[in-house]
User: What shape does this take?
Amino acid sequence: MTGDTQNIGGVIITPLKVIDVKDGNVLHGMKRSDPGYVGFGEAYFSLVQSGAVKAWKRHKVMTLNLIVCLGEVRFVMYDNRQDSASENMFQEVILSNENYCRLTIPPMVWFGFQGIRPEKNMLMNIVDIEHSPEEIDRLTLSEINYNWEIVE
Amino acid sequence: MTGDTQNIGGVIITPLKVIDVKDGNVLHGMKRSDPGYVGFGEAYFSLVQSGAVKAWKRHKVMTLNLIVCLGEVRFVMYDNRQDSASENMFQEVILSNENYCRLTIPPMVWFGFQGIRPEKNMLMNIVDIEHSPEEIDRLTLSEINYNWEIVE
Assistant: This one.
């Protein structure tokens, strides 16, 4: 589910290093020389409760770089760009400390995410522009049909 | 302990917003327009076990921006810059979700940090240049005398 299928155009899944350190590990996030880095606007954390879904959103300008630092989060992307080779494609990626990758989502791709673990689920998002409501499109959960059921 | 005393020269403590969201809160980290932002080189996570101390380090070039996203972390800084108004000053700052601030540490200030909570203690560090061993000075824990005992 995480990189073994074709990506939606512009989506990048980058495995990240975890460095073993005696008193507490260091986990890479993003370097300015990394694939997917297109500038720094803002970095913030988002929590998502177990089973809860935050969807759907699309950024007209912003590129997202998502890293799950705690728990497990399911990301679902939907491409309805008319000029896209991956038009109408859905892509699902589940990230956690065990599948520790950075997910880059380009502008104009719909996305949502869901908390998986009963404990805290937390992601960091590094974005290339500061938050601006004008460049965000939103749809309610039911406006894009996707089965969010968690299969154990 | 967190901003109610004088800061070491160049140190900035910036309270951060937590935005209440129904299915999981959003926690601000850093914006490019924020105080303390001097460029993006890298963002990474560092874990620190309860009671463990990671110390001492000094960056010759790098500015650190530290945010505790989980647990509670004690930061101790020591200024031995000869031209500094805060020469020989120690400063201690304890950050957590309850005291949710960003700690900016300028180059040439010694620092270390310690995990406080029995559960996971995790920080994010946003730095202005990519990691480079050449610009890091290190001392062992005992080379700068500080009482790291945790008083309940």
Chain A touches chain B at residues 21, 23-33, 39-49, 52-54, 69-70, 115, 120-122, 124, 126, 130 (CB under 8 Å).
